[in-house]
């Protein structure tokens, strides 16, 4: 391969959250000289999380961005080549596998590890878009602090929604959890904690129909919710709205090449990271929709 724009490696890693960095550390220590290609914001979703209390090995609270910087440093120290590029095309039909970046750079790999992660899902309301960053957020740990002694609402019913609601009680005077059904999907222990918290009110069988607020200055003043039982509307006075309704995996590049479920998560063999193409592996949120 004398083409100057082609970079070849035994192990090509796409994505740089905990899964990508961990894969890089192991591959580099096995002397495989991996190349890890990451986007403009390396570190994945953990870089948008401040307090991390559930990562093994730290008895004190640690910071998400710090943890990711440490993982990146470790992967580099053991011999990973890190390249920032945005991948726009992937060809898994022939070996070595071929990946093309926006820069025109061609990467080839004898094997590929996909760890491109997932992104927060939004309600896709015009009013939500309008107030995004001005009272509407998908990250309580990033923005909770701005709602000290104010009332906020959280949308969702899974672990993420319950955790966000609990976290927000540190700042907000009242947290309303809005769920479209009449029971939560979150794990039981979390539900118990939630229900025993006096600051949290659960509003069942409801969806957010509109975010209400002012445009000058731009700020959220309330939300309009709709009952899923009788379609009636109700307005709630809140200063902030947090969306916690799940994630969409970053897998559009692999459509029609790798097996995925109806939500776009890559399907791997049971208890394995192997996809349906030998030599192509998937790790992290890109294949895990439960955790």
Notes on the protein architecture:
The protein is α/β, with parallel strands linked by helices and 291 residues long. It has helices at residues 18-29, 64-77, 126-131, 140-143, 159-168, 188-195, and strands spanning 6-14, 35-38, 51-52, 62-63, 81-84, 87-91, 97-101, 106-114, 118-120, 136-137, 151-155, 174-178, 200-203, 206-215, 218-227, 233-237, 240-243, 247-249, 280-282. Strands 1, 2, 5, 6, 7, 8 and 19 form a seven-stranded mixed sheet that branches. A five-stranded parallel sheet has the order 10-17-11-12-13. A hairpin with a 5-residue loop joins strand 6 and strand 7. The longest helix has 14 residues, at 64-77. The model has no long low-confidence stretch (mean pLDDT 94).
């Amino acid at each position: 391969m004398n083409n100057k724009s082609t970079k070849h490696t035994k192990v090509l890693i796409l994505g740089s959250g905990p899964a990508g960095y961990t894969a890089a550390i192991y591959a580099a220590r096995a002397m495989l000289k991996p190349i890890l290609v990451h986007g403009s914001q390396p570190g994945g979703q953990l870089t948008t999380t401040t307090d991390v209390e559930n990562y093994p090995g730290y008895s004190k609270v640690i910071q998400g961005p710090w943890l990711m910087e440490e993982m990146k440093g470790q992967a580099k120290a053991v011999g990973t080549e890190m390249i920032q590029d945005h991948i726009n095309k992937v060809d898994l039909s022939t070996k070595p596998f071929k990946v093309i970046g926006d820069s025109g750079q061609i990467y080839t790999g004898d094997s590929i590890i996909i760890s491109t992660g997932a992104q927060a899902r939004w309600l896709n309301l015009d009013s939500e878009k309008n107030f995004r960053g001005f009272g509407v957020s998908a990250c309580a740990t990033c923005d909770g602090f701005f709602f000290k002694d104010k009332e906020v609402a959280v949308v969702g019913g899974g672990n993420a929604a319950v955790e966000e609601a609990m976290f927000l009680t540190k700042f907000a005077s009242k947290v309303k959890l809005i769920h479209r059904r009449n029971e939560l999907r979150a794990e039981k222990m979390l539900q118990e904690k939630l229900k025993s918290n006096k600051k949290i009110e659960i509003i069942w069988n409801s969806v957010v129909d509109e975010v209400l607020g002012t445009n000058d200055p731009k700020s959220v003043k309330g939300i309009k919710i709709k009952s899923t039982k009788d379609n009636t509307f109700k307005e709630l006075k809140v200063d902030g709205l947090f969306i916690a309704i799940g994630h969409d995996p970053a897998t559009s590049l692999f459509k029609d090449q790798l097996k995925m479920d109806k939500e776009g998560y890559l399907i791997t063999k049971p208890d394995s990271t192997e996809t349906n193409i030998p030599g192509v592996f998937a790790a992290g949120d890109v294949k895990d929709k439960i955790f």
